[in-house]
Specification:
The chain has 325 residues and is mainly β. The protein has a single domain (32-321), classed as Tachylectin-2, Chain A (5 Propeller). It is built from three helices and 27 strands. The protein has helices at 2-25, 292-304, 318-321, and strands at residues 31-32, 43-49, 55-61, 66-74, 77-78, 82-83, 92-97, 103-108, 121-123, 126-128, 134-141, 144-145, 149-150, 162-166, 172-177, 184-189, 191-192, 195-196, 200-202, 212-217, 223-228, 237-244, 247-248, 252-253, 264-269, 275-280, 311-316. The strands form seven sheets. Strands 2, 3, 4, 5 and 6 form a five-stranded antiparallel β-sheet that branches. Strands 7, 8, 11, 12 and 13 form a five-stranded antiparallel β-sheet that branches. A hairpin with a 2-residue loop joins strand 9 and strand 10 (126-128). The longest helix has 24 residues, at 2-25. The radius of gyration is 21 Å and the shape is globular. It starts with a helix and ends with a helix.
Length: 325
């Protein structure tokens, strides 16, 4: 009996350790990024940091237009965003910084050739006039940027190519819709001898009934975070997936501490890959009854950023990565 009790106690301790481990894993709670400055009253998304983490490019848009803005970290605070030098004339969005910071890839509806028309899109079963996208590259010239250059037809064969992510060897991840379902799928194009190879589908069957979007891939391609409507997502949720022996493992839901009942997308990684940035339409909960001072604070926050549109949030994912890299 004593031996059985000892075995039972050890088993209970083991279960407790597992529970504590899981609690630790999900202990991190997302915070809004630079509220009222970078996360503002419009739809803000897709932060792309320079390697030193002191400059960020991101998208700001409404239903009519999108622009890529830039902000700098000075004296511990982010500056008021300005329109980046290569954006503003067309519908530009979703900047992605190369790991070495020497160039940036972004999405634009700008004409694919001189004197052309803005690109139309077709995805999720409907047409989007002038809301299509191709991928463009802009190279850094000192502290300035060269003129953007459209990437090759291997990458831009679809007029609805979005969500670029650049890895260490120059290969490119992005999404485009399945012709069969209109749902977005994730692709990878290998960079070889300075040219992009034909894109390959990753993670899911081409005709799957859900969408996979917005990859944030580590430069060494050992893991990535992406958005998906796949189960158990309630809406569009964030998943993490690791790569082993050149193959992607089963995606893992990032849990309800990171995912809200609303929509999460536009995943991005910090330069050290320890922090996940993403966009969410979550709002701060309000408790009633509330004091007049609380009502004023709620109103000020609503007018500044907390209005149900996408804002940029961030959370540490270091515990997810322990023992995996």
């Amino acid at each position: 009996m004593a031996r059985q009790r000892r075995v039972l106690i050890l088993a209970q301790i083991g279960l407790l350790n597992v529970a504590l481990s899981c609690a630790s894993l999900f202990a991190q709670t997302p915070s809004v990024f630079a509220p009222g400055i970078i996360s503002g009253p419009a739809h803000d998304s897709a932060p792309a940091f320079t390697p030193d983490g002191k400059t960020v490019y991101f998208s700001r848009n409404n239903a009519a237009h999108s622009t890529i803005l830039v902000s700098h970290l000075r004296n511990g605070a982010w500056t008021k965003p300005e329109i980046s030098s290569f954006s503003g004339e067309w519908n530009d969005m979703e900047p992605a910084m190369s790991p070495d910071g020497s160039y940036l890839v972004f999405v634009s509806n700008r004409p694919s050739h001189p004197d052309g028309k803005p690109i139309d899109g077709f995805f999720n079963g409907k047409s989007w006039p002038e809301k299509g996208g191709n991928l463009w590259r802009v190279d850094r010239k000192g502290q300035a940027w060269h003129d953007p250059v459209r990437l090759s037809e291997e990458v831009n064969s679809s007029s609805s190519t979005f969500a670029p992510c650049v890895v260490a060897d120059g290969s490119l991840y992005f999404m485009r819709p399945s012709p069969a379902t209109g749902k977005f799928r994730l692709f990878r194009s290998q960079m070889k001898a300075g040219e992009f190879q034909p894109p390959e589908l990753i993670l899911a069957p081409f005709d799957a009934p859900y969408s996979d979007v917005d990859t944030a891939v580590s430069p060494d391609e050992s893991f990535m975070v992406f958005g998906s409507s796949r189960p158990p997502a309630e809406n569009m949720d964030l998943f993490i997936v690791f790569r082993k022996d050149g193959k992607w493992e089963q995606p893992v839901h990032l849990g309800k501490k990171i995912n809200s009942p609303g929509s999460e997308a536009e995943a991005r990684l910090s330069p050290d890959q320890q922090t996940l940035y993403f966009s969410s339409d979550r709002i701060v909960a309000t408790s009633f009854p509330r004091s007049r001072d609380a009502a004023k604070a709620d109103l000020q926050r609503l007018e500044s950023w907390d209005n149900g549109l996408y804002n940029i949030w961030y959370v540490s994912i270091s515990e997810w990565l322990e023992g995996r890299k």
